[in-house]
Amino acid sequence: MSEMNAPFAGRREFLKAAGATGTALMLPGQSAWAADPINFFAWSAGVDQVKSHIAAFEKKTGLKVNYSNAPWAQYRDTMVTKFVGNAPIDTLWVSDSWLPEWADAGWLAPVDGYPELMKYNGDVDNFCNESMRYKGKQYGLTYYSDYMAFFYDESKLKKAGIGAPPKTWDEVVQQCLAIKKAGICEYPLMLSMARESWLIEFMSALVFSSGGRFVDDNGNALMADPKKGAQQALQWVVDAVNKHKIVSPACVEVGELNGLKSFTSGNHAMALLARYRVRTLNDPKQSQIAGNVKQALMPAGVGGSHATVGWMRFYGLTARAAADKARAANTIKLMEWFGGKADGQYAFQKMMFTDIGSGFGVKSLFQDSDIKASYAKYSDIAMFEAQQKLARKKDVVARWFGEWDEVNGTSWQVAILGKTSVADALKKSASAWNDMKKA
Questions:
Q1: Which CATH number, 3.40.50.2300, 3.40.190.10, 1.10.287.3510, 2.170.270.10, labels domain 147-309+394-438?
Q2: pLDDT at 18 over 60
């Protein structure tokens, strides 16, 4: 499931690529390719499931679909190249992180004018709908969503005499100190703070649950504000590493996958990980702590809440498809077949969840008996749903996100290692954001 998060290339790289051949947009009325088949591009996840669902669509509608995919690691660069080269693409999987860039380039078209798609908004989690909106317009229909979750090894907590998981970050400290004192774990809490694409998800979960934000509703930096920004969250991590010693100082070198492996090896009592990882955590074939891992709501900071960060991927409509009414109509049918209901049910999202564990943004699926039965094998669906209701989209998604993310990630790491103060680290992050926003 490594495709669930990805690097976001820098703005300069995008501008260079886009500028090399000028605009890649189709003009209204152009018909460079025949209206049939529908061209669908995705990354290489759930390929068998996608092909099966396409076959059912073709049989149902009589329409043909050209399906292509690329590895997640190369997907964004592949799509930018195709867009610039005016390749025939009608619908595709899109990450929420790429929306501002691709929409401003004119590669994606809004779907607000298609009631067939918009009717699903009421049954989709709010953070998913918000993640598909940009400059007041909606650009797609949900494909997959998930969030950062808080997990604990119940057996280790019980061994330390702890009867319930922590509800606040202060309680995390106290419980971890008790576990550490009992000699159960040297570093009871696993945090992955390596410079990789997952880092912004970890940081956002910490910041949101502490009642902070990186930017305000107008996109202005808030991270350095001691009352509204990221200071409480970063200070907590700094203290956890350097003062309480409940998190390893090597966390700045631990990526998400290695953190998962360390937790499944029994080295920790608690961890922040993507929610879908619970399937691995409680699989005896993959985890030494299988059967003991539980999910709790994200701990709350002082004045904070149990909020976490969510992310999502969606089906986008290309400007090329939207320029031709007939092609657009057929493409919308395919988008609904995958992202909405097919023959009266959310068939594809349900299939992806039961087959490979992909999360979903559709609220009513939490009541589906098959999904309940499937999830009960390794976790608590009521907790899954409760935390998802508190998920928020990343507030730093912008065209310059990739460049800023490098500065911000480095600033956090330097503070964690004690080489600069929390205040100075966040001032540098805020300054970089504002400079890039102006540019």
A1: 3.40.190.10
A2: no
Extract the tokens encoding 139: 């650009």
Which amino acid type is present at position 324? D
| Exposure letters 59-88 (e unless 16+ CB within 10 A, then b) | eeeebebeeebbebeebbebbbebbbeebb
The reported pTM is: 0.88
pLDDT value, residue 317:
98
Contacts of 372 (CB under 8 A, 6+ apart): 366, 381
228-265 pLDDT per residue, tens: 999 999 999 999 999 999 999 999 999 999 999 999 99
Give the span between the Cα atoms of 213 and 210, in whole angstroms.
9
Per-residue pLDDT of 104-122, as tens digits, reads 999 999 999 999 999 999 9
pLDDT confidence tier of residue 274, bands split at 50, 70 and 90 = very high
Domains 20-145+311-392 and 147-309+394-438 share a fold: yes
CA-based nearest residue to 95, from 245, 220, 200, 213: 200
- Delimit the domains of the chain by residue range: 20-145+311-392, 147-309+394-438
Judge whether 321 and 91 are in contact, CB under 8 Å.
Answer: yes
Looking at the domain 20-145+311-392, which fold is it?
A: D-Maltodextrin-Binding Protein; domain 2 (3.40.190)
Residue pointed to by tokens 């999987």: 93
User: For the stretch 326-339, what's the b/e string if a residue is b when 16 or more beta carbons lie within 10 angstroms of its beta carbon?
Assistant: ebbebbbbbbbbbb
Contact 153, 292 (CB under 8 A): yes
**Nearest alpha-carbon partner for 237 in 427, 422, 425, 433:** 422
Distance separating alpha carbons of residues 86 and 105, to the nearest angstrom: 13
Residue 110, CA distances (Å) to 10, 15, 65, 211, 318 in order:
24, 22, 22, 32, 9
